[in-house]
Structures are given as structure tokens and as C-alpha cells.
TrEMBL record:
The keyword Hydrolase applies. One of its GO terms (biological process) is asparagine metabolic process. It comes from uncultured Desulfovibrio sp. The gene is ansA. Belongs to the asparaginase 1 family. The active site is at T27, T107. Keywords: Hydrolase. This is Putative L-asparaginase. It comes from the Bacteria. InterPro entries: AsnASE_II, Asp/glu_Ase-like_sf, Asparaginase/glutaminase-like, Asparaginase/glutaminase_AS1, Asparaginase/glutaminase_AS2, Asparaginase_C, L-asparaginase_C, L-asparaginase_N.
Amino acid sequence: MSNHSSSSASSSAISLPKVALIATGGTIAGVAPTPLEQISYQAGVLTVDSMLETLPGIEGVARITSVQCGNLPSENITPEHWAMLGEQCAKALDDPEICGVVLTHGTDTLEESAFYLHLTLASPKPVVLTGSMRPATSLSADGPINIRDAVAVAACPQAQARGALLVMNSRVLSARTAVKVATLDVEAFRALESGCLGRVINGEPQFYYGREENPALAGTFAELAGRQNLPRVDVIYGCAGMPVDLVRYSVERSAGIVLAGMGNGSMPDAVRHELRQAIAGGIPVIRCSRTGSGPVTPLDEYEGFVPGGMLSPAKARVLLMLTLEQQKNAEPAQRMLSVREVFALGAKL
């Protein structure tokens, strides 16, 4: 009787899907002095194995193989880290036993890493990013349930072929549309215009919509996954009376510019004049908005500028860096055309 039960349990475990859990640090691996402290803490302390110890029952969701890929606050993430994460995810996805990947990450730059992975990973297997807004030592820490939900989504067949995903606070969001909207709240990420793709209810992923035929830009830059030294692209924040010399400084040092403009991507006349000269010199300039919601549209007075559409300035930067790298050997006119084409596609919902 005992042997039969043990054999049955072993067989059940083997039949569970296998998920790779890649940890990078962030608040989800953070430690505070007391359980009541939720703001002042050290991020990126706990290892992936330590976090798994706080997840009783996870062995009933999926078989987990864990990898520690750095342990740092996400404000210190760089494009070089994106390349490393792309390589780690691609390696895991190539394993025929692995059905999906979960990546734990700090929330401050999570949307940028998520969008990079959306753009550079071509596998239909899901890559699901998650994090937390409270450190692991906090009373009512949100990290453990976010990991559990992310693993459930990564193991779910309905999550395939949707591009990279983000799972936090029970919501399932597309990496293409998710943005951080809160500094402290556990519901820190939303897709303000398109809404979420689904949610996890009591450990069960439920998707509201069927899969897109071809999720916009998913895997478009697969040949660049792991590529180091992407071109520099600066984000300039538009504001009343902004100094033109700051714009000149970026133009002189960057391969491309993203302007987080006022309203519908507007900017002072002096800044527009300076950036027109940059465009004439072959430097693409993307018009985005600092408002956080709504599209940036083409306008006659901004002819030559590339409208960022629905993309946040941070995501527009990621897309422009990859596009410029992909087109680095092209003629300037062809490179500018390619930038326009990829933003026309990627800037939609």
C-alpha cells in the first residue's frame, strides 16, 4: 500500500509541467529590518532557493528548475543585463522539457526588461515576468503569491504564443502594453488602454481573449538576443522652459532620441528646431508623451519626427535601440524608413 502510494505520487510529479524559474533580485528578494517596514529595505538579498522555501505547495503546480541570474535592485539593470537575461531565457526555452519560463525582477525597470524579451524571444513558450512591491520579510508580502501565479501561467497551454507576459496581483498583462503606474501599491502595473489579458483565480489562469495570430513585434529581433553594446538612445523629458543645451548634449552623443513630450508629444519651438537638425543629420527622434496614457499621433508641424503611438518613452527607447542595431549597416535613409515602419507596427495596442 505504501509503495503504491509513493509510486503514484512520483508518477504524478513527473507528469506535471516543468518551468524554469530565473531570479534577478529586486524587491521580491528584498529584506527589511522589521515585518512592518515596507519602504526602507535592501533589495536583491534572498536567493531563488530561499524564495522557493516560502512557497509551500508550489511542487503541486509545476516541477521547478531554478537559476540565479544576478541579485540586484532593478534600477541598476542595464542593456547588458537584458542581453544576459535573453540568453538565459533562450537557453531554458530550448530545453524540450521546459514548457515556460518565470523571471523574477525588480519592478522599477521590469517593463523595459519585459519588452526587450518580448522583442527578442521567438519561442511560442511563455516567458512570464513577476516581482513584488513589498520585501520578502514584510507582513503580507506579495512576492510568494506572485511567483505562484506566474508559475501557473507559465505552465498553462493557453499562455503560449502571446509574447512575453507580466503577472502581478493576479493580473495577466502583455509585456507590450504593461506599465508601472504606482510607487507603493501592490497593483502597480496596468495596461491603461488595452486592459489585462486575464487573471489568476485561486491558482487557475483564466484568459479573457484568444491568442493573437501574430502578437505585434514578438520575436522580431530574435537575432539580437544576447547582443551586447546596443546603440545609445537618450530619453529627454519635456517640460516648460526646458534647456536646449540639454537636448544638444544628448544629440551629440546618441544614435537616437526619445522625447517624452507634453500632451500629444509636443515640445517648445526651440527644442523642435534643435531636434529637426538632428533628424536632418540622420538621428531618428521618437515623439512620446509624459502623460502616461493615450496615443501620440502624427502632426503636420512635426513632420520628420516618428510618433511613438501607444508606447511609453521607456519602451520606445528599447524598440529604437534594437531597431538601430538591426539596421546599423543600412544607409541613413533606409535606416530611418525602417524605424518608421517598426514604430508604425509596434506603437499600436
